[in-house]
Fold:
Amino acid sequence: MPASYEADNRFPGGLRRGEDYIQALQDDGRRVFIDGEEVSDVTTHPAFAEAVHSIANIYDIACDPANRELMTYPSPATGVPVNRSWQLPRSRDDLVARRGAIEKLSESNFGFMGRSPDHVAGFFVGWAMAPEVFIEDGNTRFADNLVKFYEFLRDHDGYITYTIVPPQIDRSKPAHQQNPSDLYAGVVEERDDGIVIRGAQMLGTGTALSDYVLLSTIRPLGPGDENFAINVAIACNAPGVRIYSRRSYGQAASSVYDYPLASRFDENDALVVYDNVLVPWDQVFVYKNIDICRDQWWATPAHVMGNNQAQIRFTTKLRFMVGVAQRIAEMNGVAALPPVQALLADLAVQASAYEGLVDAQIATATTTANGYVEPGRQALYAAMMMQSEIYPKMLNLLRELCGGGLIQLPSSVADFANPDIRADIERYIQSPDHSAQERVKLMKLAWDLVGSEFAGRHDQYEKFYAGAPFVVKMAMYRNYDFATSRRLVDEALAGYDTTGRLPKTD
Structure:
């Protein structure tokens, strides 16, 4: 029988220090592959080591006594401080406190780590706010499993990522009609001690670095797809799990000076293969139920809570972009020019509009049937739709500001070590009141933001983070206050008749 997650000895319990997180990853048996080889230790391999340390830094921020009030709240089970990203909000003040904690964590990586430990935590929070959705025909088994696993992650500061999108094989056919039928990850066997999963799922961002991976699907399923209508939690070191990382931008970075973002914050998206993986029953939350598999996202606050975290993180990223633009304008001596100020204003407008929608989610928060408080959905889905449009627009504005300065840069920091090369760099690549090293350092940062391979990945990531645009638009359609719009039209039509006169009133 597979070991229960409660027996997982990688977790000491309570707030987790960075060194605890790193130690848990070391030699835990996970199978990660990159560049044709299996990785023996992700904490030391150059493709993953710096990202691991960036995640460890997140844990250290959360457990720093100086951040105790901001980053933690008392566990309802033990009373000891636990990470605020797991808090079930009961008020707008709780949402404000949660936002402050998430913002603090996102600033440690300038918003570039989208699948940090607080991300999927938001989805579990949303599910725990409405466990009744997971009850099937009066049977609370899977709902109870979900709540207990949520409590385990909360009280042990676990790091869970997810794979919720099937591979792009033949999107014209449903899951069960793929050839062979076990290409998408789904159930192939039911046993007394659990279920067996076979197949693959994509976009396991950060999965090589996490403790657990949640396997489910957010894509619509139909009759015949029951084997794929699941929600299960699987340890990343479980037998049969294989994690295939894409190219590592961190490993390709020649130095932190040359690639200050890629070298430290590359999350390594991955294809995750589940090769006859045995999942214990207590880690199964949805089982062969198409309706519940769909409703877990939309009939609970999960999609809202998870994406609210993502949008807080994205707000930090936009602020960072505005800051880089302003620093470049100042360094180039053009910050006082009206056309440059107009460009900076354009960037600020985009960032401010998006941040305003995050503010609005708290201002329009609603109380659920269970007495919890969730962010306003209309503002959330408006922000989600804007995300794919704002980011490339801001990237282009930043490129326009930088011009050819992004292209004319020394090949690497090693150029400064050669006296002859350095002399020319210091003479011809400088700015008023800024040395060559300062100018190159800032422009290298800007290049890693807008032009490097890492930058291209983030452009693609933010553009398609929310999934297919029509799905987000349908969510916006379902959550917009059309009733008020219709009422205004009705009042306008009722204000005159065919004679053009206002109707008489008593």
